[in-house]
Amino acid sequence: MDNSGFEQLFGGSPLMAILRGMGVERSLAVSTTAWDLGIEVVELPIQTEEDIEALRVVAAAGKERGKSVGAGTVVSLAHVAQAASAGAVFTVSPGLDLDVVRASHEAGLLSMPGVATASEVQLAMKSGLTWLKAFPASELGSRWLSAMHGPFPQAQFVTTGGMSAANAGEFLQAGARVVAVGSALEDPAQLPLLAGLLGGADRS
Predict the structure, then answer these.
(1) Structural Rg of the chain based on CA atoms
(2) Does residue 200 sit within a domain?
(3) pLDDT tens-digit map of 156-176
(4) Would you say residue 204 lies in a domain?
(5) Could you say which of 112, 139, 160, 203 would form a disulfide bridge with 180 (CB–CB 3.0 to 4.6 Å)?
């Protein structure tokens, strides 16, 4: 269940956008802001029918621009099917469910499970998964990333939950490959700071 394809998907960008419960029009508008800023990857959590419709619309718009759009909060096999039919190219889950990962891969989608403990990281990596969602990142703290990189140097962490322009740099410095931001994209004060992070994205 290799998910190393996320490396190419992110293309070296240190940021991704998560648009939760914004509805169709707002999701499309904020996605456009993200793409114009230089963020390549957008995730829309799917918890309602409106979320799925928003994913469908944003995925179609992203395809036209050559951008990758995925489904988040994927916690069931039904969600995987909905994500695939809406045009998502990847799924993200809050926790580690190998059945969801397997179903995603069988549907042709990359899958990123969520982890919060060393045991979950170890199981994920044993299953061939190197790109992992650290969630909830603001609660785990940036020191958690540093600690995990000791025993798991091959793990590529995407931090999600409570991320903003104010703390993104701290998490990137601690070893996060990508930081996921949401409401920050609607805050004019944070956009220049996010752009600055993107401008300094030439990291190993």
Answers:
(1) 15
(2) no
(3) 999 999 999 999 999 999 999
(4) no
(5) 160
* Residues with Cβ within 8 Å of residue 147, at least 6 apart in sequence: none
Q: How far is CA 50 from CA 17, 27, 70, 161, 172, in A?
A: 18, 11, 15, 22, 33
Tell me how far apart the alpha carbons of residues 25 and 31 are, in angstroms, rounded to a whole number: 10
pLDDT class of 203 with cuts at 50, 70, 90? very low
Please say whether the beta carbons of 182 and 17 come within 8 A.
yes
What CATH number is associated with residue 42? 3.20.20.70
pLDDT on residue 199? 84
Q: How far is CA 107 from CA 81, 100, 159, in A?
A: 8, 10, 25
Query: Tens of pLDDT along 110-125?
Result: 999 999 999 999 999 9
Phi and psi torsions of 16, nearest 5°? -135, 165
For residue 68, the cross-strand partners are 41
Residue 203 falls inside a structural domain? no
- DSSP secondary structure of 122-164: HHHHHTT--EEEETTHHHH-HHHHHHHHTT-TT-EEEE-SS--
Tally the residues of the chain. 204
Catalytic residues: 43, 133
Query: Where in the sequence is the domain holding 188, given as residue range(s)?
Result: 6-195
